[in-house]
Design a protein that fits this description.
three-stranded antiparallel sheet; 143 residues; mainly alpha; 60% helix
């Protein structure tokens, strides 16, 4: 590797970096800007990536929050907060390989990402329901 320090300086947000390889052949792994241990990183990242692909979310919970927030935004928000705090149930994970889920680091990565996906989707449904409620309220008031 060239030791030229006069090259162009490149900037990239830490959240977009997944690993850094140093000259001494040490590799540092990051997940969403957080440093993770090297020995666990490959299986953890595999589980994390698989959850992004295979975890379908909990449609029942998402639709419950959507309906509740459309009718009464505060009730929908309370449901969204309650539902998003619970990790996904085992039968909802839809993992591709049961043998891989027995590997602890893979399972932790898969469950971590599935939890984030569930939280994001539930809260997005609340925002959609809230928006629909505001539009319907405005239409009714203007009539």
């Amino acid at each position: 590797m060239d030791n030229n320090q006069k090259g162009p300086k490149l900037r990239k947000p830490l959240t977009e970096i997944s690993s850094i390889s140093k000259q001494d052949e040490e590799t540092i792994f990051f997940l969403e800007g957080e440093r993770i241990p090297v020995e666990a990183s490959e299986m953890f990242l595999n589980g994390w990536n698989d959850a992004s692909t295979f975890y379908p979310g909990n449609r029942t919970a998402e639709n419950l929050v959507l309906a509740g927030s459309t009718i009464q935004p505060l009730a929908g928000l309370l449901a969204a907060i309650f539902i998003s705090q619970e990790p996904p149930k085992e039968h909802n994970l839809n993992y591709p390989d049961e043998a891989m889920m027995e590997e602890e680091n893979y399972r932790l990565g898969y469950e971590d990402q599935a939890f984030k996906i569930k939280d994001r989707r539930v809260m997005n449904k609340w925002w959609i329901g809230f928006g629909v409620n505001m539009v319907l309220t405005t239409v009714v008031l203007l009539m």
